[in-house]
Write a structure and sequence with these properties.
By secondary structure, this protein is of the alpha+beta class. The protein has five helices and eight strands. A five-stranded mixed beta sheet has the order 4-5-6-7-8, with helices on both faces.
């Protein structure tokens, strides 16, 4: 379905195409001030990042059928339960898991948690899994992912952008984002990012 063979992602979460750095969605949103974590202490932010990564990995292994639940950290279990409950109740069929994609025209990249269909109306779903608090940047993040999916699939299907909010009670909450202006906001953020890079003498 999708091809990202030329796209790399290193340990510092920097994307690249044939050795050329490519900005990621999160980097772009931070540069434009849409995502702002400056008020959060660095140690707390890092702990949250690591926990979120662990939640994503548990959900990924569960979807792939390779999760060893016997060694799963107890703190992760309710978040995984929420994801598995969502997956079962909505009958989603994953087309891609943790899919890296690149947009050759706009020159940005991102990793989409899930591209899927569901039994309700067979829409194409772009899903972001969240283990933290809701924030306005999620809508813009998913709009960027929609651009990536459309560019790489040329799909004519109806697309829905969803965040699945997981929590420590083992339940979940779905939030759909359908404001068409979200795409314009992301492209504006990308323009700001590129302006700052040019201003600093970086042409990539």
């Amino acid at each position: 379905m999708l091809n990202s063979d030329n796209l790399t992602l290193d340990d510092n979460h920097v994307y690249g195409i044939e050795g050329v750095p490519i900005p990621g969605v999160s980097e772009i949103l931070q540069a434009a001030g849409i995502s702002d974590f400056s008020a959060i202490p660095a140690d707390r932010l890092e702990a949250s990042r690591q926990f979120g990564t662990a939640v994503h990995k548990a959900c990924q292994l569960s979807d792939l059928g390779t999760l060893d639940v016997e060694i799963l950290d107890d703190n992760l279990r309710p978040y995984l339960q929420g994801w598995e409950t969502f997956r079962q109740e909505y009958g989603i069929s994953c087309e891609a898991i943790e899919q890296k994609l690149y947009h050759p025209l706009y020159r940005f990249a991102g990793t989409i948690d899930r591209i899927a269909h569901w039994r309700i109306d067979d829409s194409l779903l772009i899903i972001d899994i969240k283990s933290g608090a809701d924030n306005p940047a999620i809508a813009i993040q998913l709009a960027a992912y929609e651009l990536l999916v459309k560019e790489n699939t040329q799909t004519k299907e109806k697309i829905k952008r969803l965040a699945v909010m997981l929590n420590d009670t083992g339940t979940y909450k779905i939030k759909e984002y359908n404001d068409k202006n979200d795409t314009n906001i992301f492209l504006s953020a990308l323009s700001i990012y590129n302006f700052k890079r040019r201003k600093n003498g970086n042409k990539h």
